[in-house]
Amino acid sequence: MINRTDWMEDFQKNISELIAKSPAADIERNVKAMMAQTFSRMDLITREEFDVQAQLLERALARIAALESRLQALEGSPDTPLQQGTVRS
Hints:
Elements: H1 4-21, H2 23-41, H3 47-75, H4 81-84
């Protein structure tokens, strides 16, 4: 006598084989191929490429902020007489 787990495994195996031989498998393969072709035409990037670009942008923004601070220190604060222009008598 076949126990219940063996029967379930046989049933799942038979269903899997039936699906693999059915038109559903062909449809799935065709849809996957069509989607892959469409995605390749869309000029998409991977998540890894996106993350790399995001890190580069963060570093660039940090460097810009540091350069702006340095420039402001070199020019002096806007409240100094040199920035506002002094009037000579």
